[in-house]
What does this fold into?
Amino acid sequence: MADSRSPGSITPLHEARSGPSSKAKSRHSPTPLPVTFDRRELSLILTLYGRKVAQGEWRDYAMDFLKDKALFSIHKRTSEMPLYVIEKNPALQRKQGQYLITNMTGRVLKRGHDLAQVLKVLDHDLVVVK
It folds into this structure.
């Protein structure tokens, strides 16, 4: 798009900051923010993760924040597929529950409305019975 000003003209400060098409930008709807874990949810997840790291079961994690869901992937080693994926999908909040845990094959281990209850499926402590 050609600018009607001469090459030596000064651009007004408000146009320099927002660009010449600030009105055109305001007509478009803003991009939706990605889904994230809140502080309480992250605290529950990281408490479990820290315990499993101390036990030597898990070593790495990854977080992905997409437009429709948030993912917390748990890895045994960095280069491998995740052992478990903790998913938050707000679209399922009123149906099956927004929290979901899957294993590395994609099988759903637990689903529900309460994250603390859903995380219990990963917090099993095996006891040797004599």
Q: What stands out?
A: The two ends are 81 Å apart (CA to CA). Helices lie at 13-18, 22-27, 39-54, 115-119. DSSP finds four helices and five strands in the chain. The longest helix spans residues 39-54.
